[in-house]
Amino acid sequence: MPDTKFPLFAAPPPLTGISFQDDDPLDPPPPAAATGGGAANGGLVLKAQPEFPALGRGASRDKFAVLVDATAPSDVARSPLDLVTVLDVSGSMQGLKLQLVKRAMCFVVNQLGPADRLSVVTFSGLARRVTRLARMSGAGKAAAKLAVESLDVEWTGTNIGDGLRVGADVLSSRRQKNAVAAMILLSDGQDTVVGPYAYTRVLPPALASASAGTNYASLVPPAFAHAAASCAAPIHTFGFGADHDPAAMHTVAAGTGGTFSFVKDEAAVQDAFARCVGGLLSVAVQDARLAVLCLHRGVRVQEVSSGAYGSSVAADGRSATIDAGELYDGERRRFLVLVYVPRARFTEEVTRLVKVTCAYRDAATGQAARAAAPAVVIQRPLELEHMPAPAIEVERERVRLAAAEGIAAAREAADGGQHAGAARILDARLRELERSAPGAAGDDPTCEAIKEELRDLSTRVGDRNEYQQTGRACLLAGMSAHAQQRAAGVEIVTSSPATVGKATAARAYLTPKMEEMVELSRETSRKRRGSSSQQPSRQDAIKQIKQDLIEL
């Protein structure tokens, strides 16, 4: 029975067939006139740019690149958030780890508004819902913090799948739904049901059958799979410490449209949560779908490079679509559309290649909206003496995609034991980037962040032990960030002053709202530490965190 003194507290649910249906009611939506019927501060900005401004009339070209660039509006009203946090409380989380997660959770609670709703789920051998999906009003925040402070470890295994199933049931059984929803999953260990260290003798029969093999995709609740017709919500995963299973966490994130972050420096878990929540609390655009229509009768779409985002090309090549999903405030998505350009007629001075449009929903108002880019047109001179340099924006996207492909290839090589070969792949991508026009300039923030990432990853894959400790997780976090074009994170304290505290996989995609939230997290940490320069003992650190939680 639910605790009557603290109504947010919930009794452990049964293993399956859960239907909670006790979420707090939402405020009624404001009238359409009050919302303005559209984006609060402008709409999505859509651009399309050809690889080259001109092509000789007598020439044709395969895989001529058109860069499609969609940018969400900035400083707009946001939609309230339904957030479920699924937290590992297995025995390995005891002590400082759990106290750090509690403090990070209290920071998250403080950032949520009265229209946002939060539910906390924990798991060890089995999962339980600690708090129902409740609004974060003053009383709601106090009860949520009290629930978080009450968490304790349980020595019964690590059942990530059950944690996700209970979290999924919380969101799936909502009586009312905020427009934006997400799950956060944090674990520091190996799944003991479907992972390589699975054991089944102490598990109920209903769960024992799930332990065969290492099918990490089975951890993803079916309704949350990214391939589902209507994905319920992304699951953003956080591998906490050096002993988690990065393959499992990456699979869950990639399978739901979420991001995977690696938090090796356990003290940085609050910053990692802050980066994620800063995005979730600034969703500006939802259900964005880009449409590419060929204009000239001879132009055909040949290929679309869309990373983790679904895309399709019509059988006749005359059109293509890209499902870009949600965009945070000020966030960008870039895609390369490769088209065939035919030879021009003798009198044809220009060729109209494609027209790009985007249909989307304003997250704050729920109103449908559209954006369109000017038609992509190239000049067709009779003779082209010198081929012009490719557009710098197109080249930047090319080298980003090449780096992402190199990271994925290096991961495959290192997983196969070819550590030296993995390092060579990354070094080769780095040299290509340094020779490219945007990379050689040295002043492009995106390219500089990717250069730093490739250098760091190369040092982590060449040695087998380092790869197992940090390299695999860093590679997967980088793959997640590049595929989603969204800031994931790698939080590692290194011996190099130049790289301490940097999250290279995230920097190329950080939005202003994410940066603001991370800075707020760091400011609260600085205030907490005060002016003392003495390094506390582990016991003193735990005592200080407990005192901070009481004050929160």
Molecular structure report:
The protein has 15 helices and 18 strands. By secondary structure, the chain is an alpha/beta fold. Strands 3, 4, 5, 6, 7, 8, 9 and 18 form an 8-stranded mixed beta sheet that branches. Strand 15 (about 350-360) and strand 16 form a beta hairpin. The chain starts with about 30 loop residues before the first helix and ends with a helix. This is VWFA domain-containing protein.
Number of strands: 18
Q: What structural class results from the helix and strand content?
A: alpha/beta
Uncertain runs:
1-16, 33-40, 199-213, 495-503, 531-535
Distance between the termini: 28 Å
Instruction: Give the mean pLDDT.
Output: 87
Radius of gyration: 25 Å
Protein name: VWFA domain-containing protein
Organism: Urochloa decumbens
InterPro entries: CLCR, Vwaint_dom, VWF_A, vWFA_dom_sf
Quick overview of this protein structure:
By secondary structure, the chain is an alpha/beta fold. Helices cover about 35% and strands about 20% of the residues.
Fold blueprint:
Elements: H1 32-35, E1 45-50, E2 61-71, E3 81-88, H2 96-111, E4 117-123, E5 127-129, E6 134-135, H3 138-149, H4 160-172, E7 180-187, H5 205-208, E8 235-240, H6 246-256, E9 260-263, H7 269-280, E10 283-294, E11 300-305, E12 311-313, E13 319-328, E14 332-341, E15 350-362, E16 368-372, E17 376-379, H8 392-415, H9 419-435, H10 437-441, H11 445-461, H12 464-484, E18 490-491, H13 504-507, H14 512-529, H15 538-551
Parallel strand pairs: 3-4, 3-7, 7-8, 8-9, 9-18
Antiparallel strand pairs: 1-2, 2-14, 4-5, 4-6, 10-13, 10-15, 11-14, 12-13, 15-16, 15-17
Helix pairs in contact: 2-3, 2-7, 2-15, 6-12, 7-14, 8-9, 8-11, 8-12, 9-11, 11-12
Domain VWFA: 82-277
Organism: Urochloa decumbens
Region (Disordered): 1-39, 517-546
